[in-house]
Amino acid sequence: MSTVSLRRLTPPAPAASVLLARACASQEVFVVARAPTLRFLGGFLAFPGGKVHSSDDELACTTPGLTRQHVAAVRELFEETGVLLARDARGAYPTAEDLVSLRRQLMAGQVTFHDLLRKHQLHLRPEDLTVAGSLVTPPFVPFRFDTAFFTAVLPPGQTAEVWPGELTEGSWRSAEQVLAEWNAGDRLVSPPTVMLLQAIRGRTIEELPERLRPLLDKLATGALHPIWFSPGVQMIPLFAEGLPPSTHTNAYLVGNDPAYLIDPGASDAAEQQRLFDLLAGRRLRGVVLTHHHSDHVGAAKVCAERYGVPVLAHPLTAQALHGRIDVQQFLNDGDCLDLGTAPDGKGAWTLQAIHTPGHAPGHLSFWEPRYRLLFVGDMVSMLSSVLIPPPPEGDLAEYLHSLQRLQAYPARLLLPAHGSPSARPAHVLEQALAHRKEREEQLLQALQAGPRTVPELTLELYRGLPPELMRFAEMQIQAGLHKLQREGRSTVNAERWQRSS
Ligand SMILES: [Zn+2]
Predict the structure, then answer these.
(1) Which of 129, 267, 424, 453 has the most CB atoms around it within 10 Å of its CB?
(2) How close is the Cα of 138 to the center of ligand 1, in Å?
(3) 6 pLDDT higher than 80
(4) Ligand 1 centroid to 290 CA: how many Å?
């Protein structure tokens, strides 16, 4: 990754997660379902865990060999499952019976974790947890975690149970079972969980550190993470110069060997090399572009040439890229791409193009019906609102219509070009529409006060916006004014806009 991209990323927050087994020899681990409303990986299966708190530092200092990640792992495991990896002076663990009321007090905020342990003379022992390795969230989200993964065995006399809240359920499952459900499309599983389950499939947790090592060694050299949000769909966030706050564009490798590569946006040579390294051993069928913006097409030409495959895009995208990138195959609304055999071996597997203009004239979204995935390109961003330029480049009315078209698909996962995929596609699309409606109402209200220029309106409606973003805000205002003008709701005279009476 280039130094520019690193500078724009905030450092990851320390976190911890636990793979808990009922016995050393058991192949089952305790997996939890995250509530759909959670900001990060809501709706996905994961392992218990969470962020390190400042109080974890304090507790870590009390015992040699104990780190703050150890403490966070024990505390989060207790909060989320009721299992407490702490012992009394004789080395005995508290029993399930004792723990219910302690957990209730902790969850109600009546006592801190530190005080709870002190009061009951319980101590954490580093040897109750085994470090398996650490993973840093790849840079597709601004809030990232440096998560230490531990393995542990359920203490005798204790039970693991999820109390509904941030988590909706918990169960003992083998890696084989969870991955089979994931493959069948019955479950969403968080990418690091998929990675860890693949590492221990058919094994016990004791083997995790060793099984994980080759991957961690590779990541330590700067390799891209294998991020699986859905079977047969690999997400590849690549550093690409887009509009702030975006630092990366998510490329997606979709389909069975050979696969289609959607939106390889990196123009940086080192970042392109990381992509080639990730693609080593894979065969490509084509490079697909959602639209012509530079942060989506940066590596399109070099990938097409390197792998000897065509570039596919909407005819209007081909026109916009004329002279820069040669689009050999047109994709129009309704066109289907064959993805090969579905990962579960059942039925046809396809990707259908949906023409969704508004952000760009030739913008395409894609619908994958097998796992109900909606690839939305720049129709929505999970980082900020999307820039809709005024005509002829963009069109706000068309954009809203395109968003409404996407609402008709019964999607289970929305995969954007910027930010994290969401397990609440309907909610995300609804929010995007509501945001535009609110902006329009603000604009109408501002016009009520009398004739105003675009810069005047921008200053009023985007108060406090950093100056370097003002010209983009002006474009948004212009797009809104053009929509209102076409609807007969605004008029312009000598660059001053007003509401039609
Ligand atoms: Zn764009």
Answers:
(1) 129
(2) 21
(3) no
(4) 9
pLDDT beyond 70 at 1:
no
DSSP letter for each residue of 241-285: --STT--EEEEEEESSSSEEEE-----SHHHHHHHHHHHTT--EE
pLDDT digits over 15-32, tens only? 999 999 999 989 999 999
Query: Which residue reads 């002190």 in tokens?
Result: 118
Res. 8 pLDDT band, cuts 50 70 90: low
Q: What single DSSP character describes residue 126?
A: G
**Right CATH number for 227-434 from 3.30.70.20, 3.60.15.10, 3.40.50.300, 3.40.50.280?**
3.60.15.10
Ligand 1 centroid to 417 CA: how many Å?
9
Distance (angstroms) between ligand 1 centre and the Cα of 145 equals 27
Q: What percent of the chain has pLDDT over 90?
A: 83
The Å distance, Cα 364 to ligand 1 centre, comes to 11
pLDDT of residue 420: 92
Q: Please count the CA atoms within 13 angstroms of the CA of 118 that sit on its side-chain side.
A: 8
| Rounded distance from Cα 475 to ligand 1 centre (Å) | 14
pLDDT class for 237, splitting at 50, 70, 90? very high
Whether 461 and 450 have beta carbons less than 8 Å apart is answered as: no
Question: What CATH number was assigned to the domain covering residues 440-499?
Answer: 1.10.10.10
Stretch 218-227: mean pLDDT, rounded?
92
pLDDT digits (tens, 9 = 90+) for 79-97: 999 999 999 999 999 988 8
pLDDT in tens, 323-358: 999 999 999 999 999 999 999 888 789 999 999 999
Looking at 331-468, which runs of residues are DSSP E strands?
A: 336-341, 348-355, 364-368, 373-377, 413-416
Choosing among 3.90.79.10, 3.90.550.10, 3.30.565.10, 3.60.21.10, the CATH entry for 12-220 is 3.90.79.10
- 402 Cα: distance to centroid of ligand 1 (angstroms): 15
Cα-to-centroid distance, 423 and ligand 1 (Å)? 22
Residue 359 CA to ligand 1 centre (angstroms): 7
Kindly report the number of other CB atoms within 10 A of residue 104's CB atom: 13
